[in-house]
Amino acid sequence: MFNDIGPLELVTIVVLAVLVFGPDKLPKVIQDVMRTIRKIREFSESAKEDIRQELGPEFKDFELEDLNPKTFIRKHLDSDELGLKEIRNGFDLKKEMAEVTDAVNSRESDSSTSSSGSGSAGSGRIDMSKKPEDPGKEDRPPFDADAT
């Protein structure tokens, strides 16, 4: 329950409790806190049991922690029914990006040598080094500020 409390924090809490409640009342306060925690646990366990009974026998192993999306996904993906681990291990993003970069670079070098040698008018490729035509020349419908 208190996995993230270190020894220094625990000592600080004990010293503050002694200062606030005093050494005489501290055991009574600890008993009251423990009783309250037990009641809360009993209430939550009874609520879980009521939910399981209402859902029926097919949900007898149902846990409320499974409703957390992270837990739900982790539970269903760890079973690896779909073979996701094999896909994940077989996919190397750096290798794929290097292959794409090499392909693009070789294609650019091929187009530059072919355009300088034989001309690229008939090749069907688009020259990306040219600037697009002026957008003002296009026929756009008139803008109506009142319509918007």
Automatic annotation (TrEMBL):
Gene3D superfamilies cross-referenced by the UniProt entry: 1.20.5.3310
Subcellular location: Cell membrane; Membrane
Domain of life: Bacteria
Summary of the function given for this chain in its UniProt record: Part of the twin-arginine translocation (Tat) system that transports large folded proteins containing a characteristic twin-arginine motif in their signal peptide across membranes. Together with TatC, TatB is part of a receptor directly interacting with Tat signal peptides. TatB may form an oligomeric binding site that transiently accommodates folded Tat precursor proteins before their translocation.
Pfam families named in the record: TatA_B_E (PF02416)
Source organism phylogeny: Bacteria, Bacillati, Actinomycetota, Actinomycetes, Kitasatosporales
GO MF annotations in UniProt: protein transmembrane transporter activity
Alphabetically ordered keywords of this record: Cell membrane, Membrane, Protein transport, Translocation, Transmembrane, Transmembrane helix, Transport
Regions of compositional bias (Basic and acidic residues) in chain numbering: 127-148
Record organism: Streptomyces fuscichromogenes
Entry membrane topology: Single-pass membrane protein
Region of interest (Disordered), residue spans: 101-148
Name of protein: Sec-independent protein translocase protein TatB
Family statement: Belongs to the TatB family.
Gene Ontology CC terms, in alphabetical order: TAT protein transport complex
Subunit and interaction comment: The Tat system comprises two distinct complexes: a TatABC complex, containing multiple copies of TatA, TatB and TatC subunits, and a separate TatA complex, containing only TatA subunits. Substrates initially bind to the TatABC complex, which probably triggers association of the separate TatA complex to form the active translocon.
Major localization listed first in the record, in broad terms: membrane
Gene Ontology biological-process entries: protein transport by the Tat complex
Record carries keyword Cell membrane: yes
